[in-house]
Specification:
single chain, mainly alpha, 4 helices, Four Helix Bundle (Hemerythrin (Met), subunit A)
Length: 96
């Protein structure tokens, strides 16, 4: 299994975790965390497929902008959506 496939598998599993957490009425912070990580793993897969191995959350956000949005591989709206989800996840995880 390639690294891209591993990240996509992880993204799918994490999205399933988010759906389960939502159905079971868990804390919204748990749901938001799982949604963000599903997007993060999918973004990692996309970037790796383009030849970019990025290891940090900030790095992934920057590379999405540079390598996908600016090169018209991803609509600006989706780039903003990803960045917004990262902010929501940070708020959910770190604010009381």
């Amino acid at each position: 299994m390639s690294e891209v496939e591993k990240f996509l598998e992880k993204a799918d599993a994490t999205l399933e975790d988010a759906e389960k957490a939502y159905r079971e009425e868990m804390l919204i912070s748990t749901v938001q965390n799982r949604i963000y990580y599903s997007l993060y793993y999918a973004a990692q897969a996309a970037l790796i497929s383009l030849g970019h191995d990025v290891g940090t959350h900030k790095g992934v956000k920057v590379k999405i902008g540079e390598e996908m949005v600016l090169k018209d591989l991803l609509d600006k709206e989706w780039g903003r959506f990803y960045a917004q989800q990262q902010t929501y996840r940070e708020q959910a995880d770190y604010q009381v």
